[in-house]
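Async update (no meeting this week)

Hi team, since we skipped the sync, here's where things stand on the single-chain job. The sequence we agreed to prioritize is pasted below, unchanged from the tracker. I ran it this morning and attached the output directly underneath so nobody has to dig for it. Comments welcome in thread, and please keep replies under the output.
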Amino acid sequence: MGKKYSKEQIFDKLVEILSEEFEIDKDSITSEANLFTDLEMDSIDAVDLAVRLQQYSEKRISPEEFKQIRTINDVVEAIYSIL
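Output:
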């Protein structure tokens, strides 16, 4: 059984992953930030992020669901919904 995290905990972990693994400035990581236009991630970064989130949540986001993700808030909601 996977752990249950609050949306705030998921957001904080996402900020940590993005700043440490992808060297994105923490100040630019907001709920509304677009992963691709605001944070300048590419498709390879997105796959790497999906793997990191899978390790964190112990659950897998479906490829179809991951394709719909655009913003930080989308990531938080996707992780929260599978926990």
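Quick observations from my side:
The chain has one domain: 7-82.
The domain at 7-82 is CATH 1.10.1200.10 (Non-ribosomal Peptide Synthetase Peptidyl Carrier Protein; Chain A).
Reply here if anything looks off.
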